[in-house]
């Protein structure tokens, strides 16, 4: 048998890219695998950047997908500190920043996402932080631990903003969160759960300024010292952390002429509009057969599972990426997992198994269910209750398949999950 001379190129030395390379070898692909990434770091998982690593609890290496030597053992060629500038689908080449051209038989775009930045006067001052890579988290951790502790202003009340706020409070920093919304996380969780997270942060000393944004920053000797809000309020700030979302890094896909619509559009097998190019992770808007819609999710589980699925598809396996969306967070004494998809207009109400209120400032033990008008479960969240994700995921799958649940039993702590809950 002749050697496999095919070359599979992965642009994005990320969790998704590393899992794709791993899957290619696991599926028996023996050709060349090139893993190209802009960072010098070996592929790593990003949740610790705003959680354990930022909090000083976890070492850097804990987040590595694999140690560096693993890639050599698997015959995976790491090309780190290199940027892909262009893709030529007709010639099947990728042009790198050194003008080197790499030929491919199949290409995977796992280019991830980029942080959204503030465009206001003074936004270039020292002390204004964004969080996307290890150097960002290192710099932020160092800034949070100086003495005396800085006055911290967090711009944005999404997951990253709130996790930074929790880490800052853990270091003893005074924290104010500014957001144009009326409650934290309301756009992703709705009013009911937003109230819980607001109460949790306020119980831990965080102040909120709702319904406003930052108009400009004031500085002294080049370092940020204050922020003027849209309503004219001026706040002291020695350190600013901006967490206003991310956008998919679709530049390569757009340049290559691929279909792009809130991400690189793929089918359920993670194949793009080009028959030789795949996409996965943050950058991909993929057809999810379970939800019957294109979906782009920006979470760890999608990078992990999507990378594996993409590798299998590139290796020639039949793939239908019907993943139940999943994410998690840890803030103070609250640990939670969420599965499903319940955007605005996708559900009618939220019901709880347990009391979602704080007790003496402590996070509750509760499960929340997002229900449609016909009582189908489209999302569920377990807070400080563990080993129930498989059951909750089964409820969500049943809900999207059209099977309703019994709300009275959903909210009954004595009723087993999930089999007896379905009508």
Automatic annotation (TrEMBL):
Keywords, in A-Z order: FAD, Flavoprotein, Oxidoreductase
The keyword Oxidoreductase is annotated on this UniProt entry: yes
Organism annotation: Catellatospora aurea
Named cofactor requirement(s): FAD
InterPro entries on file: FAD-oxidoreductase/Apoptosis, FAD/NAD-bd_sf, FAD/NAD-binding_dom, FAD/NAD-linked_Rdtase_dimer_sf, Reductase_C
Protein name in the entry: NAD(P)/FAD-dependent oxidoreductase
Domain FAD/NAD(P)-binding, chain residue ranges per copy: 9-307
Domain Reductase C-terminal: 326-419
Coiled coil, from the record: none
Keyword Oxidoreductase listed: yes
